Amino acid sequence: MLDILELPEYLIHRKWMNHALELARAAGNAGEVPVGAVIVNTNNHLIAVGENRKERDQDPTAHAEIMAIRAASQILPNWRLHDCTLYVTLEPCPMCAGAIVHARLGKLIYGVDDTKTGAIRTVLNIPDHPASNHRLKVLGGILESDCREQLQNWFVSQRQQK
C-alpha cells in the first residue's frame, strides 16, 4: 500500500480538497451554502472537518473553517495549529481569515476565490497585513473549477426554488 506522504504534493492537495467538496455537498443538501473544510497534520492525517452550519445552528459564526478549527483545537488539544493545514473549498471571509491567523495555522489551501468577501488574496489580504501576528502559507486554486461549479449550481438551484 502506498503511503500518502509518498504521493506528489498536488495529489495530496486534490485528495483533501475532494474531501472538503464532499463536506460542502452535504452542507448544500442541508440547505447551507456549500462550503467544506478539512484540517490535516504534517503527516497528512485527518484531524478535523467542518461544513457550513449557519442555518442549522442559527449561528452566524458557524462557517466551515470555524467549525473545523474548533474541532481541531479540541482534538489536539491545542489552539495553536501551526503544524496543520486547512483545506477549504472557498476563500475565507474576514472572520475566518482572522480565526485562521489567530489559530496559527501552518498552511491554508483553498479552492476558489471569493470575489465578494475573500479576505486572503482577493478583496482583502489579512494574513499579510502588518497587523497580522502570524505569517500564513497560502495556496489557492486547488480543484478551482469543481469548487466554483458546486457553488454556482447550488445558488442556481436556490433561486429556482424561490
TrEMBL record:
Belongs to the cytidine and deoxycytidylate deaminase family. ADAT2 subfamily. It comes from Dolichospermum circinale CS-537/01. Catalyzes the deamination of adenosine to inosine at the wobble position 34 of tRNA(Arg2). Residues 11-123 form the CMP/dCMP-type deaminase domain. This is tRNA-specific adenosine deaminase. It holds the Pfam family MafB19-deam. Keywords: Hydrolase, Metal-binding, tRNA processing, Zinc. Its EC number is 3.5.4.33. Its cofactor is Zn(2+). Homodimer. It is an enzyme of class 3 (hydrolase).
